[in-house]
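Something for you to look into today, if you have time. Just paste the record in under my message, thanks.
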Amino acid sequence: MKNLSDDTILAKSIKKGSRKAFSILFDRYYKKLLDYAVTYTHDLHEAEDIVQQTFITLWNNRLKINTEKSIKSYLYRITHNTYIDIYRKQKKSDSFFNELKEQVLRERITEDPEILEKRITKLKNTIEILPEQCKKVLYLNKFENLKYKEISEQLDISIKTVESHMYTAYKKIRKAFEEDNLFLFFAYKFAYKQ
């Protein structure tokens, strides 16, 4: 193999599927990208996730690498875009749960903010332990605001399967709150908001 000290040669080798070249590029830019990501996240663990995703994206899209352009710039652009995507999803998620708090308070389900916080946490935890595909369907419906038809197209599954996943999610949420009758009505609205 040619000398892999040059970024252009690395990029060409990665495009051809060279794991050795990928490993060299990873070692060369991981710390720099991590420092760059931290300037956005102000959190080392989040930054590590972003940089890891950057390299996964690079590898998965290696055939699209433009070897006439700087691979370094490409890596920084992927890192920035990954941060933006994660930030947007987080904002949507936060927005949903903030909306939930406001709605619950408006409808006077509880007067105690601590109880409300516990219920929100319980709902998040319940969602987190759903089967992976079920969680994905629920996420796309609730946080990405996709309709069942859009979800079925995106995940390449039937609308009936989407409905089945949503039913499973609702059943688990309902079970988690079965002793909490006041909160159950919101769980129903949550699961069946199409």
